[in-house]
Amino acid sequence: MGALRIVMRNARVWKKFMVSSLVGNLGQPLLFLLAFGFGMGQEVHPVAGYSYLQFIAPGLAASAMMYSAAFETTYGSFTRLGTQSTFEGIISTPITTTELAWGEMIWGALKGLLAGGIMLAVMPLFGLWPSLWALALIPVLFVAGIFFAAIGLIMTALARSYEFFNYFISLVITPLFLFSGIFFSLKDMPAAARLVMRLLPLTPVVNLARMLCYGEINGTWLWQIIWLLLITLAAASIAPPLLRHRLIK
Amino acid sequence: MNTQSLNFAKFTLNSANIILAARSLQKTFGSRQAVRGIDLDIYQGECFGFLGPNGAGKTTTIQMIIGLAEKTAGDLRVFGLSVPQDLVKIKRRIGVVPQNDNLDPDLTVLENLLIYASYYGITAKHIRPRVDELLRFFALDNRRDEIIQHLSGGQRRRLLLARALVHQPELLILDEPTVGLDPQARYLIWQRLRQLQKNGLTMLLTSHYMDEVSRLASRVVIMDQGLIVAQGKPQQMIDDMVGADVFEVICDEREARMLAGVAAACQARAEIMADGIFIYTRNACSRLDSEIRSLPQWLRRPANLEDLFIKLTGRSLRES
Prior knowledge:
The complex is a heterodimer. Chain A is an all-alpha fold. Chain A has helices spanning 2-16, 18-39, 52-81, 86-91, 97-122, 137-158, 164-179, 191-199, 202-214, 221-247.
């Protein structure tokens, strides 16, 4: 219950900055879709049976989810932790640090889901029509949103300043964006590289997004979901105690 | 203005009416002992003043009460419940006015109160009458839809107070409630706090402003370096430990030494400063009087809490 009150609080603030927040979260993946899908896509052979635009669109929706969730619980949560002392005010009430952490993670996941969902919703503008299976992406994007929000919150619990997040973005988020099978098929990679990339946390989301978008489910879906659930469980159980450690002396 | 109507939850008390009891309470940060074993009792309906220089352990003690810091050792009970086991229950009944302004800057006055009430599980519908009452009480009625960023310092402080009272707490904790405010803004807050006190609300107040503590607190403790160095009723403590009147004299070293000699003969305590002397008297002494009156720069005033504070904690700066 406490976690939901935190979600409501964040939603109330977000409503006031909705437009700028959405532009910030969606600008990049949409521009990528234009530049690579439309622009470069004309020069690229079909990948795994899809046009290049078709190939990258679902993955870009997954990346929009990742960016939105991870940014919310780094820059957003850190502002509430530090500059505004919002967290201190919250835990002076009956809300516990665990409820606070879950509120932040659920909120980050909801923002991730919204960003990913909007990317999927605009696909028809590019001539891409998702199948009905795409509805099954809602829980997938939400769970993955919890993962990335938890990772972001862990960074916030460890960060001493905003500069710390530069490492996180450059060394974690950007590599995940580039090497999780959004832009090229992992099938053609050398075996060792392929294994590493398959274990990256965004990869199962990209694969599931592509399968469900076009309704072409292959036999790996269960493993992808199990892997995603496992890493989400791990990240979401680490974040609350770390936040507690940061807030309570 | 309707200031009579603020009501507080009625509650049952144990026989001694003790709201908060600490025994041998300790807090250690690494190798630094912030609180070194203190005993405290706060009774229902009193305003309890917590004094001490920077780093004395006041804020750490408050943080332990509201769970922002974990005690290292000792026993802490609030409303008869144990910290930290029953912290969630305890926090339902405590209101906190923090030292740092942690209002939601992007929300309005009204939204801040509604959101905060929701943390206590009170819905917007149920809290509206209470919120209206609080906004009137703290003279924020006409600012209810203003964004926090547009409020003055005094208005923000009053909103922090209103926010701390939304859930009708039985104990209000005030950490430096008027720091940085102009005299008018401070006066308004004091007036409201006295009103709350009259209505039976128990308060724990920390402040650097001795005048503020003298005005509000019925009992004080003075902390220094993690220990309680004195406690009691303010006027009683001043009478017992400082005296009745204080002369502040600006003079050179030779004159100061001469006055110190006269003071000693009159059984008054003297403190020689870099640019003069302070003399704390218990009884009238005509010789001391006439010596001081012959000097150009002097001032006679009643002894106050600040004198006691300085006597107990010294004049050296406490900057960590």
